Amino acid sequence: MRIVSVKLNGQYKGLRDQAFDFSCIDSNIQAFIGLNGAGKSQLLELIAEIFAYVERWQRQDFITNTGFNFGVEVVYQIQLLSPDARQTLFKIVIKPEKEPEPYTYQDDVGWFPWGNEIPVPDHIVGYSSGLNANLQGGFLKNMVQYFDVQRIKLKRQKELSFKNTDDKQYYEINQRYVEKYPHLFEKDSYGEIRESPSGISSLIFLDYDSARLMISSLGMLSKEDLDDVFPECKFKYPSKIVFAYALINDQVEADTVSDIKMLRRVAGEANYLGIGKQSTELQYEMFELDNMSGEITLDLNDPSVRARLYEANYGNPFLFFKRLFKAQQLGIKKWRADDVRGLRRDNYFGNVKKPLKSKLPITIKELLLSDGKFATVNYDDLSDGEAQLIEIMGMARLFSSDNTLYLLDEPETHLNPAWRTYFHKHLSKALKPEFELNTQVLLSTHSPFMISSLRKNNVFMFERGQNDRIEMMPIGEQTYGTTFEILIKRHFGLKSTISQSAVAEVKQYLNSDKLVDKETDRRELTKAREWIETNLGESMEKAYLLGKLQR
Q1: Are 183 and 60 in contact, with CB atoms under 8 Å apart?
Q2: Same domain, 337 and 212
Q3: Which end of the chain is more exposed for a tag (fewer CB within 10 A), N or C?
């Protein structure tokens, strides 16, 4: 997966009538740098919105309605399943209030129409370290689409399940749903109703709830695999997971019930606790669950539990994640109605943030990580840096085997400086080098540590020009191996590598004219030197000042 270019016709937030060219890249990790408000995050948001819209247009069970109020064109390479494993070039053109127009490129004929089923990334994974929720927009729109599909299907099933429903009523209910939702239901040649298949969206945003599902799913990996993914982390082995489920009649989806039963089988009945009243006779008949709410504890220190978990999910951690992530999306029923209505429109770009720790059909109540010996820690008790490193590296490993586009907004914000210097190395390793052509990481950063790990072709500078116009340009100078001090001064808006409060005091205390005046009283120069040596820590600025005093 490689994005080659994005061209915007019209305006999306602060971006307006401009092209973003990535044809020079030579790696699968690219960094966006620039001052706050320079537009880095907005380009990540736009890319997410584009692919989310294309998915809604391509899927039979999803719908598009308003279209965009701007035009956009994205060119990308994607590796198709073919004997020679070549990457093929595709282009998607979206005009205002129009459906996407897909094209593919061949050397002998150039661009030509492809058809409706254009290949797109298997997964688009998003992450944002700050409180800014804008990157979630495109992801949440498609989550709402999946929720609406399940809500409508469950509503039909509920109507059909009434005991007094006769054949005529049964036919009328089905006929009504076929006419109202032709994208979800159709009649087969025998007059029976067939539902459109409905999987989760390919766009997955990692937040508080889904991050814990992701880390839990990695509990299926071997100790050696986890050591490989999280070399800097002490607590990295999932050892105990407590799942809590709470089902409501009009929110119960068959797969969710099946997944709860799977967790109970894996955990063993001794590790199941029913909560609240027992199921009614009708509920038990429908779902075969003793309680509509309960807790299930997986003890991953038990080899038999790990073996059952591995078998139940065919040894695939992503399958385990997907089953539980799908159930969590039914929690949209508890979101603000105005937010959900807005997210049903293609051209809605308001700030909507998914509620954290909201009431979900299945959630993780407790997640314990082990150091591989005797000590454990609750995931919620990790430092922000530890949690962030585990989330990013775990995410990279979980999705790396497929064609995946990662959109990461400041993914190393909470890491200490030492971990930041290793961030690129560990991220590249977690992405699995053998699948490098499958993945692309676009990330925004304010870290010179990250930039010093990337070659100049993979670093793009954002800044606001005339008329507040956002511009993106290649970095120009070589960044790979450049010292942090030089990168900070050149590209992060600093004239000094010491704090501005120290700079201000230096300027206030010292008269720069006297430092170069040979007639200056030697006692005053000695006094200035003593002040510098006593009050300033080691820095290039200190050495420079002392050098001037020696002249």
Answers
A1: yes
A2: yes
A3: C
Residue 9 belongs to domain spanning? 2-133+408-481
Of 67, 107, 96, 362, the residue nearest 209 (C-alpha): 362
Question: Which bin fits 120, alpha (ψ -120 to 50), beta or left (φ > 0)?
Answer: beta
Q: How far is residue 84's CA from residue 396's CA, in Å, rounded to a whole number? A: 26
Query: Amino acid letter at 70?
Result: F
- pTM for this predicted structure: 0.91
Calpha distance 538→549 (Å, rounded)? 16
E runs forming strands in 313-453 = 362-370, 376-378, 404-409, 439-444
pLDDT per residue as tens digits for the range 261-273: 999 999 999 999 9
| 22 and 79 assigned to the same domain | yes
List all residues 6 or more positions away from 107 whose beta carbon is below 8 Å from its beta carbon: none
Residue 521 makes CB contacts below 8 A (sequence gap 6+) with none
Q: Whose structure tokens read 């199921």?
A: 279
Task: Write the pLDDT tens digit of every residue in 42-72.
Answer: 999 999 999 999 999 999 999 999 999 999 9
Tally the domains of the chain. Answer: 3
Distance, CA of 381 to CA of 431 (rounded, Å): 27
The tokens describing 225, both together, are: 């695999």
Residues 376 and 420 in one domain: no
Same domain, 223 and 343: yes
